[in-house]
């Protein structure tokens, strides 16, 4: 799939849940190739504004090239965890925040980015290629115990110890440089392959999440979203694996429930400070979308609304 043919997942569902005021100020925290941003702009009136954010320099260049003449649109280079810094330059409270998590199709489809082992390329995996350490630097220098932790925690890989040990043995002989090289070592060290899944899938996912700080960024932006959103503003998040969705689900549930007070405290149910309410149930892609776009099969969308006075 080329960059120009990138298809945004749950496009209609996300924009319908997000835009409640056509003249409001919205943030697309994961611009990618602008699928969601373009759909949001179509829903906005002349007074509406959209701030897009992305780590990837290629996404920033694409936004300036394709959206640069749109007066209601602006783009900011950085992590969505820091979108509060970008929003300071905008006037007015935020009516909605959209996050489409994980790696984008254009990133996966470019071998030189190193996200996929399906096409051999440099072992990089950085969403922001202008900073941070690459996947190659990490696997060639990280302590074995830390690799085990990352593979278990972020990849839910049950053979983390065997795989980490194999990586350490191999790197002492020859450093890792290419994606397919690492994938072959992981493949050989994995004793139980899952049907329909490459044995290196979980390890590659774990490395990508770790070096890009994806879950830390998500935790940060969830908390910051409450301060950014106006009462009645919407938070819409599309996740693609269980670790992300678990964090989002737990955050919405806790903010909807409010602080846990000691039993017997003389306070009315209506007096408990709740900051969010869930909007509908979790939504998954319809059959026609999953057939047309394989990436959408694991997508889960959750939406919440900030309560007044929160």
Describe the protein's architecture and organization:
α7 packs across α10, α8 (160-173) crosses α9 and α11 runs parallel beside α12 (242-257). The chain has helices at 11-18, 35-43, 57-67, 83-87, 105-109, 135-141, 144-155, 160-173, 179-189, 201-212, 214-228, 242-257, 287-292, and strands at 25-28, 49-54, 73-77, 94-100, 229-239, 276-278, 283-284, 300-306. The chain contains 13 helices and 8 strands. The protein is globular and about 60 Å long. Strands 1, 2, 3, 4, 5, 6, 7 and 8 form an 8-stranded mixed sheet that branches. The protein has 310 residues and is an alpha/beta fold. The protein has 2 domains: 3-106 and 214-306, Rossmann fold, CATH 3.40.50.150; 118-212, Orthogonal Bundle (DNA polymerase, domain 1), CATH 1.10.150.
For this entry, give a set of tags.
single chain; 310 residues; alpha/beta; Rossmann fold; DNA polymerase, domain 1; 2 domains; 8-stranded mixed sheet
CATH superfamily placement of the largest domain: Vaccinia Virus protein VP39
Radius of gyration: 21 Å
Give the total of domains. Answer: 2
Annotated CATH architecture of the largest domain: 3-Layer(aba) Sandwich
Number of helices: 13
Ends: how far apart?
A: 43 Å
What profile does the largest beta sheet have? Answer: 8 strands, mixed
CATH topology of the largest domain: Rossmann fold
Number of strands: 8
Mean pLDDT: 88
Order of helices and strands: HEHEHEHEHHHHHHHEHEEHE
The stretches of 5 or more residues where confidence is low (pLDDT under 50) are: 1-5
Shape: globular
Which range best describes the helical content: under 10%, 10-25%, 25-40%, 40-55%, 55-70% or over 70%? Answer: 40-55%
- Percent of sequence in beta strands: 5-15%
Return the structural class.
Answer: alpha/beta
């Amino acid at each position: 799939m080329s960059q120009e043919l990138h298809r945004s997942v749950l496009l209609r569902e996300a924009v319908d849940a997000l835009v409640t005021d056509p003249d409001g100020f919205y943030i697309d925290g994961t611009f990618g190739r602008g699928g969601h941003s373009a759909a949001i702009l179509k829903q906005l009136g002349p007074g509406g504004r959209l701030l897009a954010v992305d780590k990837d320099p290629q996404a920033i260049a694409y936004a300036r090239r394709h959206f640069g003449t749109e007066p209601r649109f602006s783009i900011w280079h950085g992590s969505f965890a820091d979108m509060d810094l970008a929003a300071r330059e905008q006037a007015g409270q935020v009516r909605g925040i959209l996050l489409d998590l994980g790696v984008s199709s254009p990133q996966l489809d470019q071998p030189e980015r190193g996200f996929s082992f399906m096409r051999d390329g440099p072992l990089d995996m950085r969403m922001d290629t202008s900073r941070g350490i690459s996947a190659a630097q990490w696997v060639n220098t990280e302590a074995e115990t830390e690799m085990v932790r990352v593979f278990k925690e972020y990849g839910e890989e049950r053979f983390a110890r065997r795989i980490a040990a194999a990586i350490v043995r191999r790197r002492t002989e020859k450093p890792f440089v290419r994606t397919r090289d690492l994938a072959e070592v992981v493949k050989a060290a994995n004793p139980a392959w899952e049907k329909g899944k490459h044995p290196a899938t979980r390890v590659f996912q774990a490395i990508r999440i770790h070096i890009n700080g994806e879950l830390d960024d998500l935790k940060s932006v969830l908390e910051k979203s409450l301060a950014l959103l106006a009462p009645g503003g919407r938070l819409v998040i599309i996740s693609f694996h269980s670790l992300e969705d678990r964090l989002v689900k737990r955050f919405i549930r806790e903010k909807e429930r409010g602080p846990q007070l000691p039993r017997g405290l003389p306070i009315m149910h209506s007096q408990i400070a709740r900051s969010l309410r869930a909007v509908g149930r979790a939504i998954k892609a319809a059959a026609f979308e999953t057939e047309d776009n394989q990436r959408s099969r694991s997508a889960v969308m959750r939406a919440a609304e900030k309560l007044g006075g929160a």
